[in-house]
Amino acid sequence: MTGTLNPARIAALLGLLVAGAVTGAAGWLVVDLWFPGGLLLALLALLGVFLAGRLVTGNGTGVGAGAAGWFLAYVMLSLPRPEGDFLLGSSGIGLYVYLLGGVAVAVICATMKGAPDRPDSAARPRR
Fold first, then answer.
1. What was the pLDDT predicted at 76?
2. pLDDT tens column, 52-84
């Protein structure tokens, strides 16, 4: 699905944006609920969204769409409400690790090299 923008590609990128936002909001809830296990679960969910974006689009734009949705949800949930309190408690190091870990997972998925067209053979030299 690489190449120019067409309606299918735009729909896929918007779907990845929404999937990233939903995953980001769910990850925010799970990190505070079950700290060590919830953090790993949230990062694995992000890995799944980012890898799906990489596979669907064939390049890093799908990862970028998922990461944009995730980061948007992260920022929106961390803003204080008009009453002065936060929607969710942001105490502890778990949410900072979630932010940095999510960025690291997004960068890893965006810079992955795709599978080669054919397998390399030891019998013939590479061109």
1. 87
2. 999 888 888 899 999 999 999 988 888 777 776
Residue 41 near residue 30 (C-beta atoms within 8 A): yes
Q: Let me know: does 35 contact 94? Beta carbons within 8 Å.
A: yes
Neighbours of 21 (CB within 10 A): 20
94: buried, middle or exposed (CB in 10 Å: 19+, 13-18, 0-12)? buried
- Positions of the chain with pLDDT lower than 70, given as ranges: 1-3, 84-91, 114-127
Dist CA 10 CA 74 (whole Å) = 23
**Residue whose entry in the numeric block shows the structure tokens 């919830």:** 38
Question: DSSP assignment of the chain, as one string?
Answer: --SS--HHHHHHHHHHHHHHHHHHHHHHHHHHHSHHHHHHHHHHHHHHHHHHHHHHHSSHHHHHHHHHHHHHHHHHHHSBPTTSSBSS---SSHHHHHHHHHHHHHHHHHTPPPPPSS---SSS---
Q: What is the pTM of this model?
A: 0.80
